[in-house]
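REQUEST FORM: STRUCTURE PREDICTION
Request ID: SP-0412
Submitted by: Lab K.M.
Chain count: 1
Length (residues): 452
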Amino acid sequence: MSTLNALFEARSVAIVGASDNPHKLGGRPIAYMKRLGYQGDIIPVNPRSKIVQGIPAIASLADLEKPVDLAVLATPEVIVESIVKTGIERGIKNFVIFASGYAEIDAEGLEKQQRLEALFEGTDARLLGPNCLGFINTQTQLIASFTTAMENHPLKVGHLSFAGHSGALGAYWLDKTIRADIGVSKWISSGNESNVDLADIVEYLANDPETHVISLYIEAIRDPERFEQALMLAKQKNKTVVALKGGKTAAGSRATQAHTASNTRNGVDYQAIFERTDVIEVDSLSEMIKQCQFSLSGLSLNGGRIGVISISGGAGVMLSDQLTASGLDVNDFSEPLHNLVKPLLSAHSTTQNPVDLTAAMVAQPTMLGDVATALIQSKEYDGLVVFMGLMDSIAENITQSLLDIERSADYPVFVIWMGGKIDCVQKLSNAGMLTFDEIPELVTLLGRSKSK
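STATUS: Completed
RESULT:
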């Protein structure tokens, strides 16, 4: 089985078109790797500079003393072909090409891409791109990308990986993982896929011991059989795959053709492939991030019985309706649980599921923890949803109660906190709790999780 280890785990990298300006295309990868402590060799390639960002530079790949593991081309497309020829002649096996202007543009661009592809025929060299944002390996801090998502914040090292056809959407994904404090393993933008395609990348990630959950943005499935085999490998390796599919409509398909030269309406039944390989399909990056967080937590929804604790009677009604409509069960308390919960509530609360704590919780801040403990210990539910709104005056107490609840539960605990204090919600997220701003996003996740 072929792998892409030499590409994505390269120990030496040449940046062709290297710039002293850390904000330019050829300057970002060097600046990132210097700042983050990449332990491999960085070789800037620039015919006009002997030193780039404090590192000795060479004029051409032909001047390499020995082949590097990877060449990253941050150059205009008009000179890409000649640089790749030189690199292959010099024994370089892996390339990343940022430049656009290929098959995604017009017939002339397609011809240029075909000439580029021909350079790799009959060799074991690999190419990521063209028209891509490259890739990131947080384990080694190899940053073969010019994305701006990491300008102010480095990525936390972890076990969530991304691969997709859109570099920009991938950058937004990076930003969301940073904000959610999720650890990332690999991030890969495949672009036009003239040599390395998404099937190759999924196979690599399925075999990668540092990747536990794989998230994908998919436009075209170019080789359905190979793609399904890669997804099946991920399933066999017990790795959750979460996918966002673009180009489902005629209008979307036209847009993807101009984006990455992808034909999304090529007769491939992607939904059937997803069903056979247990891929979880989502409709937004926000849904993707929440689903990945849930999968990374190691928790699972082993049944459909959901306990609901709310500060709002109206929110309890909405949750009951939407959870039930998604195939979940908001079952009422047994008599023993009813008798246990009743004395914990105010006289104005009704003892039922969902539990409405009412505004009495302000005067009795331990109520939330007491009621949640009773529901958890009853073993009558498979998951617990807690709805909060505002409550700034006791927000710190609520936060601590929620953290205590999560630690005591042997099943998932989810929090919806509308208008919650930002630092308190962030504290919950940093502790690994899944927090939501709105009801529908959580209900969708629970419905999917129950069905898997």
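NOTES: The chain has three domains: 1-132, 147-298, 306-451.
Reviewed by: T.R.
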